[in-house]
Known about the structure:
Elements: H1 22-28, H2 35-63, H3 74-102, H4 112-137, H5 139-165, H6 169-172, H7 182-191, H8 199-207, H9 211-214, H10 218-231, H11 236-250, H12 254-320
Helix pairs in contact: 2-3, 2-4, 3-4, 3-12, 4-12, 5-12, 7-12, 11-12
Amino acid sequence: xxxxxxxxxxxxxxxxxxxxxxxxxxxxxxxxxxxxxxxxxxxxxxxxxxxxxxxxxxxxxxxxxxxxxxxxxxxxxxxxxxxxxxxxxxxxxxxxxxxxxxxxxxxxxxxxxxxxxxxxxxxxxxxxxxxxxxxxxxxxxxxxxxxxxxxxxxxxxxxxxxxxxxxxxxxxxxxxxxxxxxxxxxxxxxxxxxxxxxxxxxxxxxxxxxxxxxxxxxxxxxxxxxxxxxxxxxxxxxxxxxxxxxxxxxxxxxxxxxxxxxxxxxxxxxxxxxxxxxxxxxxxxxxxxxxxxxxxxxxxxxxxxxxxxxxxxxxxxxxxx
Length: 321
């Protein structure tokens, strides 16, 4: 009689050929990040962003003109730039996020909420890598947008302060100021203009003197005016001295010559004050433009991050469909 090898149920060997928990165990040991898909999406987003930026630069340069009443205005150019940057972020980030979600690996036995979170993370990571790559390629341009306005404003204000503090110093080095000192040279020339009524007497007295005596002492007058511009007022003794020089050179009466000195110094102060105000206004406009550019760049980047994350979820759904 053949004997059968019968074992108790608790001693029976387990059938391990098809374990029931295989998909779950495999899913638990599979990485939740598909770096290949993320890098592919980031590369596509960075390339498209670069192409669109180059296209926007070409369109912008073709729409502006240095001639008055030609081309678009500065306000229109600024608004169009903001809109183009936003469109660039939406298009590039959307493509990168969609590719990152569509090219990822399929996750088996993973909850729907977890899949949604992973797709969102894939889109965000693709956007982040693409933004870093674009910033590395266009770092100088971005830093110019952020810091260019502040640097330009500081240089303009510094130039205005230097002009006010040493308005006559540049002219003092030469009798005829050129470049930055031409304005001061103009006032000195106006100071020594001859009175037509006294032209005959002046020409007679000038004929007996040397050429050096006939030349106006522009350097000395420039130093006096520079010192007075720093203090904000022309001292009485300097005013009398300059009045004597003007009377000698122009033939005016001493009182009229001193009045000309005072009027000329007042005109110089007004001109330099206006120049400083214009420089301060230009600096303020440059500061505001730089601030607005940075803020809108921040907003466009946030929009790009949201679009990339949303597009990745659509791509992931198409992948799992």
